[in-house]
Amino acid sequence: MSELKVGDTFPEGVSFSYAPLTPENSEITACGIPQKFDASKEFKNKKVVLVSVPGAFTPTCQVSHVPSYIKNADALKAKGIDQVVFIAFNDAWVMSAWGKANNIKDDFIIFASDTGAAFSKSIGWTAGERTARYALVIDHGKVVYAAKEAGGGIDVSGAEGVLAKL
């Protein structure tokens, strides 16, 4: 696979690992049981923003990136976005804790692991061994926005940058 571009079909066989939020694992110290999130299947029936970051709880990701999506959730929904999926190199338990630490209470925004950065490597968007900072918008299986950050900011992958292109 190569870099995804606007107009491409989101590839088959893409999955992430995530621990869905349940009443039993709602506390930050509760682990939950990771399961497969079949992105290829899920993205066929939704309009989704897939946001990749280098790591959970890292400065830019925690201070700027995640808050931009939380703050703009209503604006994203108004533009027809059904879900925001954050991925990073971290495992599913860390990603779950990151969502809980940010008071995520539903599945509009989920936090999943790009295990081994497999998907990010497949499209050539990594930062060394980690996932790079990028955003994709997939509208019922078609890529309608694809942008990777050139530097350390969130100009094209933050919610404001994505909203400007919707």
Automatic annotation (TrEMBL):
The active site is at residue 61. It comes from the Eukaryota. SUPFAM superfamilies: Thioredoxin-like (SSF52833). GO terms for biological process: cell redox homeostasis; cellular response to oxidative stress; hydrogen peroxide catabolic process. One of its GO terms (cellular component) is mitochondrion. The keyword Oxidoreductase applies. InterPro entries: PRX5-like, Redoxin, Thioredoxin-like_sf, Thioredoxin_domain. One of its GO terms (molecular function) is thioredoxin peroxidase activity. Keywords: Antioxidant, Oxidoreductase, Peroxidase, Redox-active center. Residues 4-166 form the Thioredoxin domain. Belongs to the peroxiredoxin family. Prx5 subfamily. Thiol-specific peroxidase that catalyzes the reduction of hydrogen peroxide and organic hydroperoxides to water and alcohols, respectively. Plays a role in cell protection against oxidative stress by detoxifying peroxides. This is Thioredoxin peroxidase. It comes from Emericellopsis atlantica.
